[in-house]
């Protein structure tokens, strides 16, 4: 006899009760269906395919022409008679954003200056290396002439 053995009575489940019948829903009146607005007819926005050689006909596009001498009218600030109201929150947010942009611009400017300085130092070092290599070449040529010319 095991300690963890299931009893045979536990294996049998009680029978499930039968489901009750659901009530039937009433029919919707036919009048309400006819008063419903209908959806507009679907007009495809894609270009139509033509039957000749599978080409696609694109709708014609007419360029908009405007007389250069005509300038669109824009009210100038000095001509406005009505006061302009701006929410203080929006103004403060704009000022904060402007300050953040100035700070980032200053950081970028500083980084560019550091990069320029680093490049200048690299150029100086490269010039020194080129001079050292040239002096080594000259010394090797002198040694080569003395050894093999005699």
Rg over CA atoms: 44 Å
Order of helices and strands: HH
Largest sheet: none
Helix content: 40-55%
How many helices? Answer: 2
Give the beta-strand count.
0
Shape: flat
Q: Give me the secondary-structure category.
A: mainly alpha
Strand content: under 5%
Average pLDDT score:
76
Low-confidence parts: none
The N- to C-terminal Cα distance equals: 111 Å
Task: Give the helix/strand layout.
Blueprint: H1 30-34, H2 88-148
Molecular structure report:
The chain has 150 residues and is an all-alpha fold. 44% of the residues lie in helices and 0% in strands. The longest helix is centred in the C-terminal third of the chain and has 61 residues, at 88-148.
Keywords:
mainly alpha, 150 residues, 2 helices
In short:
With 150 residues, the chain is mainly alpha-helical. The protein has helices at 30-34, 88-148.
């Amino acid at each position: 006899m095991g300690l963890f053995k299931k009893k045979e009575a536990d294996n049998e489940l009680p029978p499930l009760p039968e489901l009750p019948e659901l009530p039937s829903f009433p029919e919707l009146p036919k009048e309400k269906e006819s008063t419903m607005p209908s959806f507009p007819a679907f007009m495809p926005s894609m270009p139509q395919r033509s039957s000749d050689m599978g080409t696609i006909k694109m709708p014609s596009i007419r360029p908009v022409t405007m007389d250069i001498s005509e300038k669109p009218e824009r009210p100038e600030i000095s001509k406005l008679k009505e006061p302009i109201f701006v929410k203080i929150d929006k103004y403060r947010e704009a000022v904060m954003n402007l300050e953040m942009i100035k700070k980032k611009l200053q950081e970028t400017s500083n980084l560019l200056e550091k990069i320029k300085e680093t490049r200048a130092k690299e150029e100086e070092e490269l010039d020194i290396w080129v001079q050292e290599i040239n002096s080594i070449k000259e010394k090797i040529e002198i040694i080569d002439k003395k050894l093999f010319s005699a």
